[in-house]
Design goal:
Largest sheet: 7 strands, antiparallel
Shape: globular
Number of helices: 5
CATH architecture: Sandwich
Helix content: 10-25%
Number of domains: 1
Radius of gyration: 17 Å
Strand order of the largest sheet: 1-9-5-12-4-2-3
Order of helices and strands: HEHHEEHHEEEEEEEEE
CATH topology: Jelly Rolls
CATH class: Mainly Beta
Structural class: alpha+beta
Distance between the termini: 45 Å
CATH superfamily: q2cbj1_9rhob like domain
Oligomer: single chain
Strand content: 25-35%
């Protein structure tokens, strides 16, 4: 496995909130994720095969065939997690110049996964982090399973380029890197030149982003072996409601 940039500096579990407030992002290793979310790491690892059954993303405006995904929505309030009616994913052009302004209808996540107590514990934990950062309130959560493959020689995790998502917090969980090179993560201040580049590689490590303060992207991937792919779970939390065409 070849990386262009080193692994990220990991935040101490006791200092997570302070790190997020200071720099607008933080990275946690898988053991810290499991500890803080109250979920056994083997439970998280047992979800990985679910990325082998993602339908194609038929909305790629660059004509690519490299992305597969599922999408579901939830509300998190004071530790209570409730799945809501399935809905389209929508972003304004302000935040997604490539796919903004388009209602995108994806297949929902597997009921066997999102019905597990561990799933609710993971979302409840993210809700606590976001409330610590932004103030306690109901969080409107969108969860996306992504597989970026190299069937056509190159895959683009963020075809829209460096961007914000128009939410309050973004969590990018690395699920798997298999037979690829590239896929470096880049995080930059939204209002300045400062930034960091690193490779998120450990399964179930996570990048947490204060979406108002930073922009982020991942570089394209190329195969090191046939079938090379990059799997992630991206969870966004937003106050006030889901993004919807006004």
């Amino acid at each position: 496995m070849t990386f262009s940039f080193p692994p990220p500096a990991l935040a101490d579990v006791q200092a997570l909130g302070a790190v997020l407030k200071r720099q607008g992002y933080a990275v946690l290793g898988a053991s810290s994720v499991a500890q803080l979310a109250g979920v056994a790491l083997p439970e998280l690892m047992a979800w990985c095969p679910g990325w082998n059954d993602l339908p194609p993303d038929n909305y790629l405006r660059d004509g690519g065939r490299y992305r597969r995904r599922r999408h579901s929505c939830f509300e998190v309030n004071d530790g209570t997690v409730q799945q809501v009616a399935h809905r389209a994913h929508w972003q304004p052009l302000e935040y997604n110049a490539l796919h903004g302004g388009l209602e995108r209808h994806f297949e929902p996540m597997d009921a066997g996964l999102v019905g597990q107590p561990a799933w609710s514990q993971l979302l409840a934990w993210l809700g606590r982090i976001c409330s610590g950062l932004k103030g306690a309130q109901t969080w409107f959560v969108e969860a996306h399973q992504f597989r970026i493959d190299t069937t056509d020689g190159i895959g683009r995790p963020t075809p829209e380029g460096a961007h914000r998502d128009g939410v309050d917090m973004v969590a990018v969980f690395m699920v798997a890197r298999t037979g690829i090179k590239g896929g470096e993560t880049r995080v930059f201040d939204a209002e300045g030149p400062n930034g960091q580049r690193f490779t998120l590689a450990e399964p179930w490590s996570v990048l947490l982003l204060d979406d108002a303060r930073v922009v982020h992207e991942s570089t394209p991937i190329q195969p090191l072996q046939p079938g090379g792919h990059r799997d992630t779970l991206v969870i966004t939390l937003r106050a006030g409601g889901f993004q919807a065409e006004g």
